[in-house]
Amino acid sequence: MTEKQILINRGQNLSDILPNKEIPTNTILNKTLTGCGATYGEIVHAARNSIIIEPNVPVILGKKAEHPFLFAVYEGITKENVKAFLSGEEDGFRKIITTPEGFDKKVLPAMLETNTPIYEDYFLLLDECEKTIQDVGYRGDIYLPVEDFFKFKNKAMVSATPILPSDPRFKEQNFELLRVVPTYDYRQPLTLCITNNTIHVLRKLLFRLKDETVCIFINSTDTILELIQTFRLEEHSKVFCSDKSVRKLKQQNFTAVSDQLTELAKINFFTSRFYSAVDIKLDYKPHVIILTDVFHAPYSIIDPQTEVVQAIGRFRNGIEKAYHITNTCDRLPCVSRDKLFHTLECQEKVYTQIQGLPIEGAIELQARAQALEGMDYKRFVTRTGNRNWFMWDNAWTDARLNTIYQYSTTLEEEYKKAPFLLDVYTANYDITDEDRLRRTQAQIKGTTELWREVVGQVNRILQQNPNAEQMFLNEQLGCAFGEIIEATTILGKERIEQLGYNRRKIKAALGNVAENRLMTSEKMRQAVYARYNTGDVVICSEILNFLRELITNNGIPFKSRLDKQVVKLFFEIDDDKVRVKGNKAYLLGKKMFEI
User: Fold this and answer.
1) Nearest 5 degrees, angle CA 494-CA 497-CA 503?
2) What distances in angstroms separate CA 190 from CA 325, 377, 499, 575, one per listed residue?
3) Element holding 588 (H helix, E strand)
């Protein structure tokens, strides 16, 4: 594919620099800058009928609100509505904006049924085109317009961060890459924090930004809800995500959630639905945090050269500062491009062989269909039975990201290729994200395994920091494990092991410890040592009656049996039998406390 460059000055839009204010046909437009007016120009300035395909509904709603004359296709708009629009009178050119699914299931059928010469009369613009490659692995319908895309006489793809597709039809139809080159330094400052405990770093950063508006991008609603609950943000946060995730969060009693952009809260969470194309226009500049956790949320792994750029670019009036908090893992599954494609070629060969088997009768036909349907390679085949090149590109995109997030060095190198003024910060802690994953896995296995894992982690901290307080430990592991943390600090790992990590036995042991602390308070010690000393031989009933009176007078809720174990809280006792005038007695040894 040949490449051409076109310069843009600060303050200019694409309509100022494109010939006839239009995106040329058979072009992949790398506009470089987010928000420089590619779709705006097609909607307002391009003198032609247009179909603009956007990756998500929030984008469409935003464009519709800005340009009421647009015909927007999304949930609730039917094929019949499209047909009615096509049959109505229209001043000027028709401008249709739709999702990929809306194009395939509503717009295209409506035009074919009304005999509209869609491929000749309409310009097709595939906006944020990298999403077709990045999302097709889990959202197959995003690919639906691609096959028809090549049938259009006039067409283009556009993005500030395009991924060049490998589909040979781009070359066959003489596509050209048109790159917009700014004449000024447009790079954004960004702090990359590589850590082994993303939650701890995020907590510290949110505390530092407690008086600011913060927007957090992370591709995991489960992780978002966990963060909100862990940081107790229920009253101060909103979540913006897909309608499916909205329902999921509401079922879990979190209601400050929407699939459309609304007024922001103090702390806002966005999933990939809002990573690209959505215009967020504010009269202030928020802080933007990208959060990646390769252990708990593999889908939160995102591309510094595309998705990070797009997330920050959502804010049309700029941001205060950007941060990417992430961990890395050298055990992420990685494969080279050559090996990946060799594997896919082998799978394709077998798939094609089965597809070409001679068939005799309905039973064999059904058996072959079942065989093809059960093959993993089925995902890499289009509806017409051809190679889905975009799925191949998607497989490599995912594999490449795993390679990037294996080490801090590989991630830093990738960021150096992205348009950022980079500041790198590293932070490592005793308790890590991997430890958090082990706690989650242990919780699934049961109470005993959870206690075993958390006790071990608390003990590891205490070995490094013997004076660690309960509040610090709760911060490191989470308040949800407060009971286990308290038990470990009081009883110790060895004692809990002796109790078999049995919660009932541990609670009983903690009760004894609590009683003993009250029993050996300073006031009790002074009273006992004022009456008895080392070397005294005391009749058992006498000292026990004295201790019972002390316990009652001091209001101590002692429920255990009163015997020599209580005396041993204050003195060592010789276990040989001692008698005074025929009565059992104790020979009091060394004092257990210094007064």
Assistant:
1) 125
2) 11, 39, 50, 71
3) strand 583-591
- Has residue 575 got a pLDDT over 80? no
d(CA 50, CA 337): 37
pLDDT at position 576 is 65
Alpha helices (H) along 405-502? 408-416, 433-445, 447-464, 470-477, 482-491, 493-498
Distance set, CA 530 to CA 480, 522, 534, 555 (Å): 45, 12, 11, 20
Please state whether the predicted TM-score (pTM) of the whole model is above 0.70: yes
Task: Choose among 384, 317, 378: nearest CA to 348.
Answer: 378
Residue from 197, 407, 213, 207 nearest 291 by CA: 197
Tokens of residue 135, six digits: 């999302």
Nearest to 506 by CA among 489, 520, 527: 489
- pLDDT (0 to 100) of residue 169: 97
**Residue 157 in contact with residue 29, Cβ under 8 Å?**
yes
Q: Measured in whole angstroms, how far is the alpha carbon of residue 221 from the centre of its chain?
A: 7
Range 536-549 average pLDDT: 92
Chain-centroid distance, C-alpha 480: 20
Q: What is the structure's pLDDT at 148?
A: 96
**227-240 confidence digits (pLDDT tens):** 999 899 999 999 99
Distance CA 282, CA 259 (A): 19
How many other CB atoms are found less than 10 A from the CB of residue 513? 13
Query: How far is Cα 398 from Cα 409, in angstroms, rounded to an integer?
Result: 19
Q: What percent of the chain has pLDDT over 70?
A: 99
Q: What is the dihedral of CA 411, 414, 419, 424, to 10 degrees?
A: 30
Confidence of residue 127 (pLDDT cuts 50, 70, 90): very high
Query: What are the residues facing 410 on neighbouring strands?
Result: none
- Tokens for 80? 């019949």
